[in-house]
Design brief:
Largest sheet: 7 strands, mixed
Structural class: alpha/beta
Helix content: 25-40%
Oligomer: single chain
Number of strands: 18
Strand content: 25-35%
Distance between the termini: 23 Å
Radius of gyration: 20 Å
Shape: globular
Length: 355
């Protein structure tokens, strides 16, 4: 360890709350890379981590929170690969074994050894059992997990690693790209949903219909390019189907995953359509034939995304096709950001920066 110190927002006991504390600054060894953190995004997954009951997640406390990270390479271990000292990067969040077939293809989110790693390391990746980026510095296991961002603003770059990447992966999870004259419904226009609207507009020619329980989120959906946005009401399914010409949506991207959102998704999906469940709102679907699901329905449960997809998301942002709606907080105000997120008061993405 270096004699220098670093401040960090850490989970020190099950159920939280997180605490801001000071630690010795780590020195990289082997393939490790130390970053000076420029920004770290905050999402509802962080609340799930903080609130998890004992045994609910394989993570061992204490560890530093924050899995959406942008920063600058500060030091490299003697066998480090990838970006050089001084280069600005984002951190790919799900850390796999680096050696299995999926990891070799950049899909560490689907690492074949994930259950084994969770047992051995008690962590899925940055801020998820292993020290993350809600700190002055963060130690990354390998340069293979870093994606250069050039001069992209750190406040914009950090949320791309989860909110942007997960939304992009959800869109690419569709078996058939939505074509002209078709409609896609986005349920939940929060940190991920507002980027999904932009990604759909940038990469498809489909009509984008959005639903959220908050008026401000509907305004955000419109600003992001949604063709239509509405609150959930008793007749919302009929209204949305009418917008599709009566046939229903070719795809529904559910960023909520609650009982009510899944019910709405089933009600607006057309035969042969695709349901992509991203949110973890506790809802359940009954799958049977015949049943409530339209015939030919395909269901996917995407998790995060791949390194090549993160590179494409960064490219979209640098080209101006993606812009994250952010609320900025200093590291010393990170606990306030947690409370605003818990209260549902954050517009877009809360981003914490060292202050």
């Amino acid at each position: 360890m270096s004699t220098a110190s670093t401040r960090a927002v850490r989970l020190t006991r099950r159920g939280g709350p997180p605490v801001l504390t000071e630690l010795p600054r780590p020195a990289p060894t082997g393939e490790e890379v130390l970053l000076r953190v420029e920004a770290a995004g905050l999402c509802r997954s962080d609340l799930h981590v903080v609130d998890a009951a004992p045994g609910g997640l394989p993570y061992r406390v204490p560890f530093t929170l924050g899995h959406e990270i942008a920063g600058r390479v500060l030091e490299r271990g003697p066998s480090a690969v990838g970006p050089a000292v001084g280069e600005r990067v984002v951190v790919y969040g799900p850390w796999g074994c680096g050696h299995c077939a999926n990891c070799g293809a950049g899909a560490e989110n689907y690492c074949d050894r994930r259950p084994e790693l969770d047992r051995e390391l008690a962590g899925t990746g940055a801020g998820l059992g292993r020290d993350g980026g809600m700190a002055d510095t963060v130690l990354v296991p390998s340069g293979r997990l870093l994606v250069p961002v050039g001069d992209l603003d750190a406040l914009q770059a950090a949320p791309l690693t989860d909110a942007g990447l997960t939304a992009y992966h959800a869109v690419t999870a569709l078996g058939r790209p939505p074509a002209d004259g078709t409609s896609v419904v986005v349920l939940g226009v929060g940190g991920l949903g507002h980027l999904a609207v932009q990604i759909l507009r940038a990469t498809t020619s489909a009509q984008v219909l959005a639903v959220d329980v908050r008026e401000e989120a509907l305004a955000l959906a419109g600003a992001c390019g949604a063709h239509f946005a509405t609150l959930p009401r008793p007749d919302t399914a009929q209204v949305l189907r009418a917008r599709t010409g009566g046939t229903g949506a070719v795809a529904v991207l559910d960023f909520v995953g609650s009982r009510s959102s899944l019910g709405l998704a089933v009600a607006v999906l057309r035969a042969g359509g695709e349901l992509v469940v991203v949110g973890s709102g506790g809802g359940e679907l009954t799958v049977r034939k015949p049943g409530a699901l339209p015939p030919g329905t395909r269901i996917s449960l995407p998790f995060w995304g791949t390194v090549p997809e993160l590179e494409r998301v960064v490219a979209l942002a640098r080209a101006g096709a993606l812009r994250v709606e952010v609320e900025r907080y200093g590291l010393s105000s990170a606990l306030e950001a947690f409370e605003r997120l818990r209260a549902g008061a954050v517009r877009g993405r809360a981003v914490v920066v060292p202050d």
